Amino acid sequence: MDYLELARCYDDLEKTSKRLEKTEILAALIKKTTKDSLRELAYLLRGRVFPIYDERKIGVSSKIAIKALAQTTGVSPEKIENLFKKKGDLGIVAEELIKENKQSKLTSQRLTVKKVFENISKLADMQGAGTVNRRIQLISELFSNATPLEAKYITRTLLEILRIGVAEGTIRDSLIWAFFPDRVSYDKEKEEIILKCSREEYNELVEKVQHAYNLSNDFGDVALSLKENGLSSLGKIKIGLEKPINPMLAIKIDTIKEAYDELGDEEILWEYKLDGFRGQIHKIGKNKYKIYTRRLEDVTNQFKELIPVLEKHTNADSYIIDTELMGYDPKTKRPRPFQSISQRIKRKHNIEEMAKKFPVEINVFDIMLLNGKNLMDLKQTERRNLVKKIIKPEKQKIIITKALITKDKKKVEEFYKESLKMGNEGLMAKKLDKEYLPGRHVKGWLKLKPIKEPLDLAITGAQWGEGKRTSMFSSFILSCKEKDKFLEIGRVGTGIKEKDSELTFVSLTKMLKPNIIKEKGSVVELKPKIVVEVNYEEIQRSPTYNSGYALRFPRVTRIRYDKSINDINNIDDVKRIYNKQNKSLI
Ligand code: AMP
Q1: Does residue 278's CB lie within 6 angstroms of at least one atom of ligand 1?
Q2: Backbone dihedral angles phi then psi of residue 269, each to the nearest 5 degrees
């Protein structure tokens, strides 16, 4: 297939914001694509040359693209840089420059999808200094054979900003429209989908294709399978090592009773819901592992201290296990919330130092593949038994997530309280005979956590600090509203930083000082002007404050510059949350 066809398709996609129209444009192109360039097309449509989980990036800087353009067209890099600044889109600059250049040049070869894909893939594998000239060469080979429109989209692909507004679901639907014309078509005039089968059958079809994608995360695989033999070959898409699976997720519930209503009046597997982050771990062979996040990013290098732990404490040749990586305080050994370890995910430097400062414990709760065998169709309980078989637990290294299988709602309530006391988020409820299904599904996994609705409150008072902090406020009085009155609901000093933040004691003091109305001892009364967003563990009844309520463990999360004092939460909001949180769980 000529790359020009793809470039025209990008152009058409960019011109419309309507999803159905985009789907139709894509489906028409997919129909025309032969087997030998379908994989390439599937990746390029998402502006990539690899499946999404592949961490390799095209990674061409605008500087290199400009140099290649300069080499092809003879226009100076400075001039191109200026044009780029003016237009803000190097793709459009490339289009214009190639247009001018083409007029003076006659011979050029037609670019194919395969050729563009090949050169861009080579670029991604060729990182670092010393390769600059070779990279410029590869890009300029493409530019010198490109039409203006092709140059525009080659440039955007190189810079990884395609701007055609095509999401995962649109590609999935376009594959269905392309390969199942007997089930669905599109009426351009009326802008309507025409179903040639029942809605249920169509939904089932969508679900099957989505499932195949959830397993492989690779539209190249899905498109090729569909082209080969329709639905029957989708079954051939296998989960595999180094190909992360979309994780199974949970639906939120507010009470224990809801879990039994939803999953049936039978025993449920309840597990601690931990506040770490999802780690899908693949053992490929001895000392060879991959760790992927929930969004399928490869974070093996950032967490390489876990490899010896896995090697020592797991017993199998290969597997894919589902885990939560839980941060803990190296001194107290208490769990740390996700925010404190999240910085490790993107870390490129000082990885060893970070591993010591922010250690994690692997909490294993599921297994999808063991010694080459796919376990996803096994029951939840069978999979959990296999987890127990291969893990040799040791605290702070690797453990099996604590669980309770019961029908007794009272026991669940105790287990829930225990989990919260341990610093966890709540509980997960899992149906005993459920298979592993990527995504969120009814009658699958459920999550139970305390209701947390942050409140927007006014700062109506503050207290001067002591010692080093005498010249600044160290705690702040928070109020909600009742009509035009302000009612106090708590006092907060947490969440505000000493330095290196927008939200420091110094900056808040500076902001609030002009609003002082009265001073009494170390306490000041402030004109309510500043609104802050506040998180808390719980709302309690309290005689201490004139609202009659108090926030337990309040923490300021940010200043709401966007909210005026009239927009803060009122006492009715507080009462509503209080009542909701005290609703019986069982
Ligand atoms: P949420 O992010 O609130 O939708 O909750 C889903 C997340 O909870 C998953 O992606 C996991 O990272 C996390 N999680 C914590 N504990 C468990 C558990 N026992 N089973 C499954 N997921 C868990």
Answers
A1: yes
A2: -85, 115
279 CA to centre of ligand 1 in angstroms: 10
Q: Is 304 a catalytic residue?
A: no
Number of domains in the chain: 4
Task: Indicate which CATH number applies to the domain containing 68.
Answer: 1.10.3260.10
pLDDT at 51 > cutoff 60: yes
**pTM score of the predicted model:** 0.77
**Catalytic choice (227, 243, 273, 290):** 273
Are residue 273 and residue 413 in the same domain, yes or no? yes
* Domain extent for 219: 169-234
The 8 Å CB, 24+ separation contacts for 144-148 are 144/72, 144/108, 145/108, 145/109, 145/110, 145/111, 146/3, 146/98, 146/108, 146/111, 147/4, 147/7, 147/98, 147/102, 148/94, 148/95, 148/96, 148/98, 148/99, 148/102
pLDDT, tens digit, for every residue of 314-350? Answer: 999 999 999 999 999 999 988 888 877 888 988 888 8
Same domain for 258 and 226: no
pLDDT number for residue 130: 77
How far does Cα 197 stand from its chain's mean position?
35
Is any atom of ligand 1 closer than 6 Å to the C-beta of 273?
Answer: yes
